[in-house]
Specification:
The protein has 169 residues and is mainly beta. The protein is built from two helices and nine strands; from the N terminus they run ααβββββββββ.
Length: 169
Amino acid sequence: MNANRTGYLLGPLIMVLSEFETRGQAAKESDRSAPSTNSIAGDWKATAALEDFGDLFQPYHGTRRRDTLVNFKLDGDKWTGHSYNPTHNLTAGQKGWDGKMQFSLVRFSDGMLLIECDVEREGKPEKIRIDALLRNGKLVGRWSILTGDGADVFAGGWEAVRARDVTIP
């Protein structure tokens, strides 16, 4: 991958991560998620970007995009949410899965969103974490998969826009 393409891909991600640091990671540290004038409540179409590696040393690398739907709700003073994958039946090895994934943690404060959900990979508990910023009606950030000891083993870009033409089950 040439330096121009690397800078093009990493530049926006670095800007987003820098903004998290300068805002003090308020969403992570807040025990209480207060309603915001820029609410995340409702349905969203989300896209996760994953590096496409068939082989680390393959000559051409690309990015796969995986779409899903997410819903956020403010119950009193606590945010909740879940995702729904309408094509879940096409995902290999997921027998008995109805396409829904309940988030174990949703925090939204000062335009910053933190989502976590518990998953299992190769028989071990892991966590999916999404950190995003709400900007101009769009959520933009990063997803990562964390091992039980907190190591970041996979990561990529994540964004979501309002889902005006669907209702999430």
